[in-house]
Amino acid sequence: WSVPIKTINVTFPGDIIKNMTDMERAENYLKKFGYLDTLHRSGFQSMVSTSKALKKMQKQMGLEETGELDEATVEVMKRPRCGVPDVGN
Amino acid sequence: YKTFEGDLKWDHKDVTYRVINYSPDMDSSLIDDAFARAFKVWSDVTPLTFTRLFDGTADIMISFGRADHGDPYPFDGKDGLLAHAYPPGEGMQGDAHFDDDEYWTLGKGPAVKTRYGNADGAMCRFPFIFEGKSYTTCTTNGRSDNLPWCATTSDYDRDKKYGFCPSELLYTFGGNADGAKCVFPFTFQEEEYEGCTTDGRTDGYRWCATTDSFDRDRKFGFCPSRDTAVINGNSEGEPCHFPFVFLGKKYNSCTSEGRNDGKLWCSTTDNYDEDKKWGLCPDQGYSLFLVAAHEFGHALGLDHSSIREALMYPMYSYVEDFSLHKDDIEGIQYLYGRKTGPDPTPPQPKPPTTAPMPDPTTSEDKPDHTTLPTTTTTRPVDPTKDACKMTTFDTITVIEGNLHFFKDGLYWTVSSGSDSGPKGPFSISERWSDLPAVIDSAFEDNLTKKVYFFSGPQFWVYTGQSTLGPRGIVKLGLENDIQKVEGSVQRGKSKVLLFSGEKFWRLDLKAQKIDSGYPRFTASAFGGVPSDAHDVFFYKGHMYFCRDRFYWRMNSRRQVDRVGYVKYDLLQC
Q1: Which residues of B carry out catalysis?
Q2: What are the pLDDT digits (tens) for A75-85?
């Protein structure tokens, strides 16, 4: 049996750090691609719930519409993609 | 499919585009080709035409950039966002931007086109053998001038075919020096530089002076990336240094140690711990063709589709044999209508068709056995097997004047005088009962009307319904190690060129022997066609070399006068 390797994370100079929590990544993703929108109406700012936005995103991506940040949804958010928003323009 | 709000679309059919700049990852000719093919994806199914402009303002301005690149939507380094494009309209609308922090390839690792050498600019072939050693990247071994080179066939020792790989020591791109090579050392702001640098720029592109003093001459160009160069990090453009030391341990290859994202990296000096110079190792890269085809979909007015297999689905996935999804076709035709001419949708199989009666002729050959014809009628065997959905065919040939497309025991025909699309599929075994399911090549002798079929190391000769064979292709004089004949073209009355791998032989039909002086290299006799074509045939005065879904058409002066899709141009789908 090989000895398990103890993984050490190193901060590489010049690296574009994309270390963020899944929830941070999700919020970022939902905003960037138009699922989580802030609407300004008569000075009142309403925010579509994250769960609703997640469902919308999951529908677009052909995932199970759980409205929750499950593993499959997180994985899809990490995949390379086009920068054009999926919702609204 | 989805269109943008208000169904934004171009109000003219002759759309123009302009390539503003290039990525260092691929030769500019490969980039131009990828864009042209990406536009063709859409022009094949609509009445739109795309014309390239070399200056001024085009409808679709195409550029590469990194991070903040002049619009409100910055890119995000390697991976993540790959590109974006704007829907049709004035100004920035219609433009397409590609993230140059990505590694742009044709989707399957470094796409290295050579220059100079003796291979007419062919692509590097990896791995290749040089002095008994296998190389998976360009190398400077065997040279004293430090120029990286590669073989363009799998064995340099045998074929001696080579070209030079991208290097700043050979040429630059962009800038103002007409592609001149870098001059090292050069001075910039009174400092001396021994290599390409990003100093003085905010966009991260590596450049060099093409004279010994930029301060004096102001001549510069951008450095092409070597196939071994790292991506991102703090040493972009430098090759990995093996072995290197990281946390006291020696590494002989790229590693993901030290990272939690699983990406492979390497040090560009012998000791990372001391020098802290590193970069990500080259990977498969992203197919510029596929990403461009998607972005151009936006530039023409298509928004993201929710169908995973559609080109307009927002996620990238590499597909080897790309064809436009029905959803994309419906979307773009909703905006611009159908292409005038042949129907772009797959034709329905036609009712049973009577094949021309074979003309039995006497033969000097002594058949091994004779199969009596059971029927002279061919009929479609499985209408669900649609030729238009096939990405490649085992072989394509002309029999009785009509194109025949063979695949896995079936064949389809396209009449030369009509544009009604393919008929079939028909069963090979029903018409030529002795043949195996896979036919590698076939041709009809113009003089005797005998049809020669090749499959693996064997061939059959049909005279009407009578067969001769199977016989070994070695009996024709082909070497023992030839696995199959992939292409056949009749020249004159009794000579036939047989293609296999990167070589071809000339068969004398009367003598049934290979002429002396053969084999020859396909690339040296037929410049401009793929050296690894998997099918070669003759049709209407032209030679056709097929690779993947494309064909290269060569005229009688041995000039490639057309490159196109088998599916649309030959099958008439």
Answers
A1: 295
A2: 999 999 999 99
